Amino acid sequence: MDGRTILYNHLAIHRRIQAAFIESGRHVFPISLMMIDIDDFKAINDSFGHPAGGSVLKTLAGVISGSAGNNDSAGRYGGDEFILSLLYCGKKEAMVIADRIRLKFLSERFADITALKPTISIGVAIQNGEIPGRKEIDLIHLVDLALYEVKKGGKDCIVFHVLE
Asked: CB 3.0–4.6 Å: which of 32, 50, 68, 149 could bond 94 by disulfide?
């Protein structure tokens, strides 16, 4: 577990995604991954201090874990990046959940941060059952690429990809 957010740490969430990917291929159901990043997180730490940044991390972790179902797994992937693995979740459902997370976080208030309204960017990738020759690392790479596109394209939004 990650001590600050009480979510899975990088290694644990990677193992959960690997197991979910194998199960998804075996029983042919969709799995969606979301990679979520706090926009301009360094500016929050630099302007308001690391305790304020920690508060933002914990708040986002709560929003993400509150959006996860019983079969889902949420983890801190690194720094201010989080990953959410959604089992039995296709494109439509994943987009609804991603937008719900983004809007819920946007509605949060932070007492320590007065001049800046934190936002998040979300990359989403889906795999629809077994794809011969594909591994969970392919889905992780695709969701990372989706998040990179969000960051490059303006932040505070969602980009979606399908693993084929």
From this structure: 32
Look up tokens 């208030």; give the residue.
109
- Alpha-carbon span 164 to 153, nearest angstrom: 23
In contact, 127 and 137? CB cutoff 8 Å: no
Buried b (16+ CB within 10 A) or exposed e, 118-145: bebbbbbbbbbeeeeeeebebbbebbbe
- In this structure, which amino acid lies at residue 84? L
Instruction: Please tell me the distance from the alpha carbon of residue 47 to that of residue 80, in angstroms, as a whole number.
Output: 16
Q: What would the pLDDT profile of 89-114 be if each residue is shown by its tens digit?
A: 999 999 999 999 999 999 998 877 87
Query: Which uninterrupted H or E stretch holds 102?
Result: helix 91-107
Is 54 or 22 the better-scoring residue by pLDDT?
54
| Backbone φ, ψ for residue 32 (5° rounding) | -115, 145
Q: Is the pTM of this model over 0.85?
A: yes
Mapping DSSP to helix (H, G, I), strand (E, B) and coil, where does residue 157 land?
coil
> Taking a C-beta distance cutoff of 8 angstroms, is the pair 162, 125 a contact?
yes
Q: How far apart are CA 146 and CA 99, in angstroms?
A: 15
Going by C-alpha positions, the residue among 53, 42, 37, 38 that lies closest to residue 112 is 53
Question: Strand 73-78 to strand 81-87: parallel, antiparallel, or no bridges (unpaired)?
Answer: antiparallel
